[in-house]
Specification:
- The protein has 485 residues and is an alpha+beta fold.
- The protein is 29% helix and 22% strand.
- The chain has helices spanning 18-27, 66-85, 104-117, 127-133, 155-168, 211-216, 289-302, 348-366, 391-400, 416-424, 432-439, 452-463, and strands spanning 9-14, 34-37, 54-55, 89-90, 94-98, 123-125, 143-147, 151-153, 172-174, 181-185, 188-193, 196-205, 225-235, 246-249, 259-262, 268-271, 275-276, 311-322, 328-331, 338-342, 407-409, 414-415.
- Strands 1, 2, 9, 10, 11, 12, 19 and 20 form an eight-stranded mixed β-sheet that branches. Strands 13, 15, 16, 17 and 18 form a five-stranded antiparallel β-sheet that branches.
- Strand 11 (188-193) and strand 12 form a beta hairpin.
- Helix 10 (416-424) packs across helix 12 (452-463).
- It is globular.
């Protein structure tokens, strides 16, 4: 991007995680000039790419809080949103398990709180009902709370799909735009990055673990983000069916505890740990031996003897825990031309559609109630997924485009045609991880050991860049250094 000031926007959204991209999608339905600013090389590279992927029912948030209101409303909206955006979603239900009689009052409290929050169909299960639902749960369990409206989604695919929809509707995406300074004017703000400058009448702060930093750039120190690290284990899809519902233990002050859940793609996910870290450590996504061992020990309480030998990868996510212990969804008291969508930790993914709708409504009022566009497109074309097709559908696709007949990722059955589509889509992939999140090439048992070099070759060809310029996730993550011969 040029270092000259870009054309002025009505709204600039800072942060392209699931909340920021869904806000941009909501705003794209109006006659507004909207910019989406992301400090990384792609959307969904922060908390959105590494979390539990749970769509919570909404029974544990404090009644009357933003978390409670937005969780229940977001849960209600999620299935239809995923259908519209063609994102994998599974309503598999959840159980919170009590392992001792002393924990039963916790379940009763969650039931009462959930009903106050408006969560439908909650009920307590006795041990027989629990083990009929989940036979592998610890036989010593004495009861559970069952929430059938809970589900799982692919969070990074939701953000990618929202970004594609937003860009297709006119939103301009700025990658590698790390906001370091904000210049305030009477009629707006100028966001300054090493990559350039963007002017906007209104700024939406959806910067995740850095949302307090963005607020402080305008002198707003009204909240502080306390990063919290969580480690996870992901098991091969051959374990699909080991559990059906998301299985929680009774919560603690550090969160909802270690869970075990199926994913929207048929894997099994275990985690997270919970460790408060300093702001300086919020980019440290390394896993630790104590953290992963702690997860293994904790999950054995829920499902004794659960083997983790089929683990295909481990990863770490950082949660944007706020000192206010609630979402911050309001204009800044320092300058109302910045609207905060901050402190979005769990249940932020569940709440994201409702947060986006609410924040977009604030922005629309603040920009003079612009008209809705004619011909706004609410979704995106359904991505072609070779692995989900019948043999006849595959033959037809290959006949139309032979690139669909070239399987690049054997573990997940991903074709060259799908990878090319992901690169050239609106807000398309620019690096190996971007292709992985859009197509699942590299997410299987070999974790890219077989398909990685071919994906790199395709990226270099389609982006018309040297192979040495292809990165894993942007920045200094080049895969190749130089030619040897």
């Amino acid at each position: 991007m040029s270092t000259e000031i870009a054309r002025r926007y009505d709204v600039a959204v800072v942060g392209a995680g699931v909340v920021g991209t869904l806000i941009a999608r909501e705003l794209s339905r109006y006659a507004l000039r909207v910019a989406l600013l992301e400090r990384c090389n792609d959307v969904a590279q922060g908390t959105t790419k590494a979390n539990s992927a749970i769509i919570h029912a909404g029974f544990d948030a404090k009644p009357g809080s933003w978390k409670a209101k937005m969780n229940v409303e977001g849960n209600r909206m999620m299935a239809e949103l995923c259908r519209t955006l063609h994102v994998p979603y599974l309503q598999n239900g959840a159980v919170v398990v009590a392992f001792t009689p002393e924990e039963l009052p916790t379940l009763e409290g969650l039931l009462e709180r959930g009903r106050e929050n408006g969560v439908p169909d909650l009920r307590l299960l006795n041990p027989e009902e629990l083990h009929t639902l989940e036979p592998e749960v610890n036989p010593e369990a004495v009861g559970a709370l069952y929430a059938p409206t809970s589900g799982v989604v692919s969070p990074y695919e939701l953000a990618i799909a929202a970004a594609e929809c937003a860009v297709a509707n006119g939103v301009e995406l700025y990658r590698n735009f790390n906001v370091e300074r904000v210049e305030q004017q009477a009629d707006g703000m100028t966001l300054v990055s090493p990559a350039g400058r963007v002017e906007a009448s209104l700024v939406i702060n959806a910067a995740g673990t850095r949302s307090d930093d963005i607020a402080r750039l305008i002198g707003d120190d009204s909240f502080c983000i306390l990063p919290r690290r969580g480690e996870y284990l992901l098991l091969d899809s051959i374990r699909n069916g080991a559990v059906k519902a998301t299985i929680f233990q009774c919560p603690s002050k550090m969160g909802k505890g270690v869970l075990i859940t199926p994913t929207a793609h048929g894997n099994i996910l275990i985690g997270p740990s919970a460790e408060d870290i300093s702001a300086e450590e919020r980019d440290d996504l390394s896993t630790t031996d104590p953290g992963l061992r702690g997860i293994q020990e904790a999950v054995s309480r829920s499902v004794p003897g659960f083997a983790i030998k089929d683990t295909i990868t481990s990863f770490t996510g950082i949660r944007a825990h706020c000192d206010k212990d609630d979402f911050i969804l309001e204009p800044s008291q320092v300058n109302p031309r910045m609207i905060h969508a901050a402190g979005i930790e769990s249940p932020g993914l569940s709440a994201s559609p409702a947060i986006a709708e609410y924040i977009a409504a604030l922005a629309v009022r603040a920009t003079g109630e612009p008209a809705e566009k004619e011909g706004w497109i609410p979704g995106r074309p359904e991505p072609l997924r070779l692995r989900d097709m019948t043999p006849a559908q595959r033959r037809a696709a290959i006949a139309e485009n032979p690139a669909y007949g070239q399987v690049v990722c054997r573990c997940e059955t991903i074709s060259e045609g799908e990878i090319i589509n992901a690169i050239h889509a609106p807000a398309g992939a620019r690096d190996l991880d971007g292709v992985k999140r859009r197509t699942r090439a590299g997410m299987g048992r070999c974790q890219g050991g077989f398909c990685g070099p071919k994906v790199l070759e395709i990226l270099a060809r389609e982006l018309d860049i040297p192979p040495e310029s292809v990165t894993k996730y942007g920045g200094q993550s080049a895969v190749l250094l130089e030619k040897t011969k």
